[in-house]
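Good day; I would like, with your permission, to put a structural problem before you. What I wish to show you is a protein chain and, alongside it, a tokenised description of its three-dimensional fold. Please examine both parts with care and let me know of anything in them that strikes you as inconsistent. Thank you for your consideration; the sequence and its tokens are set out here:

***
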Amino acid sequence: MAQTETKVLTAHVPLPLAEKVDQMAARLERSRGWIMKQALSAWIDQEEERSRLTREALADVDAGRVIDHQAVQAWADSLGTDTPLPVPR
């Protein structure tokens, strides 16, 4: 199996967070580095998805695929009533 190139990154983290990392590493019987790689990968995936969804939403706005604010407000106001409105589309 080919060895992946790596780069050492250094970060100062608050002691309570470092202790949680150490606890997680012990519980999972993994290294601290493995835990940090998993956490960083998950965060990057989350941020990339957030960016993708933002670009998608902005494309909808540019294309005029929007819902009127008043329609959304009326729907939200109706949620606490006996006759909620259907979700605006």
User: Anything to note?
Assistant: The chain has a mean pLDDT of 96. The helical segments are 15-28, 32-62, 69-78.
